[in-house]
Amino acid sequence: MKPGVLVKYRDSLPIAPGTPTFTLGEGDTPLVRCDRLAAKVGCGELYLKLEGCNPTGSFKDRGMVVAVAKAVEAGSQGIMCASTGNTSASAAAYAAYCGLTAIIIVPGGRITPGKLAQAVIYGARVVAIDGNFDQALKIVKALTQSHPVTLVNSLNPHRIEGQKTAAFEIIDALGDAPDYLFIPVGNAGNITAYWKGFTEYYQQGRSRGRPRMMGFQAEGAAPIVRGHPVKEPETVASAIRIGNPASWQSATAARDESGGIIDMVSDDEILSAQKLMARESGIFGEPASATPLAGLIKLSGQGMDFSAKKVVCVITGNGLKDTDIALKDAPPFLELPADVEAVERALGWK
Ligand code: AN7
Hints:
The strands form 2 sheets. The chain has a 6-stranded mixed sheet, with helices on both faces. The chain has a 4-stranded parallel sheet with strand order 5-4-3-6. The chain starts with a helix and ends with a helix. It has helices at 4-8, 35-41, 60-73, 86-98, 113-121, 133-146, 157-163, 165-174, 189-203, 223-226, 248-258, 267-281, 287-301, 323-328, 340-346, and strands at residues 31-33, 43-50, 78-82, 101-107, 125-129, 150-151, 180-184, 212-218, 261-265, 306-315. Strand 4 (101-107), helix 5 (113-121) and strand 5 form a beta-alpha-beta unit. It is 43% helix and 16% strand. By secondary structure, the chain is an alpha/beta fold. Ligand AN7 binds next to helix 4, helix 9 and helix 13.
């Protein structure tokens, strides 16, 4: 049995004697070395951190287990979040495990069927608003101030605490920090959490340095890159369709303290990176998860030299959450009778 984030990282988390320590098996995700992909993108060593291997298929579970444990400890009856899909799936699962109510507010028609199916099957109360994520978050902030339910968006500091454990795992696996960490940026909680994790391990002497933090937004939803909120964010990567990130300040702090950047990539760049990752390394991430690889390809194409560098891309969510995108421009399959010879002929073997 996996110990889970609460037990494994007890000493680095806000665990009190009254905090329940349960797990759905989150954390301890694979860090996969991808040499063929590295060669394609001009990178010395390239590793993908497969956060889609968490119980609900995204990195959110690391933070959610801590946020929900603290909500239970505080005697909360319910949790609430706004979501582009993955936070709600995770909140719904951990609430179900603990017997709490989960109320989730999502942008109507804009979260993938896979993510919506998760929230529904876990028994969450789903409210779809006629608006985007930023508007949903505003509503959640207002309602959690006036009602006895716990906000579990990444404004909840326990979420950040849990998510920082992914940085610990990367250092434990590599024996030191990588040179660069490439990561998608939506509401900007995760880049904040990784930087906190890398910094804590560094201060404890567990790594010799810290990586440059390389955050990437989608072009149509790139408020941090543009320097102002985006009123109507738009991108194929629905998970990061966010126009006014809650953790804006801490994301730019992570960028600046690490000597990194926050840049953007187009939807086309995201989708071709998603395909490349799948075909060259056998790893299927949802579009938002391909954003860091798209960023690496972009910078490499601009002449930045990664040939002697160790790079980690965080693959934040499982590709199965958004199969529509993967099938959208797929070539037609061969359709044949159930006949050995017909298949043999079609394959050019006869
Ligand atoms: C796959 O679920 O914001 O910058 O409401 O699902 O920490 O927001 C999801 C975000 C990257 C961005 N990759 O992380 C939500 C939500 C995936 C995501 C991000 C999200 P943050």
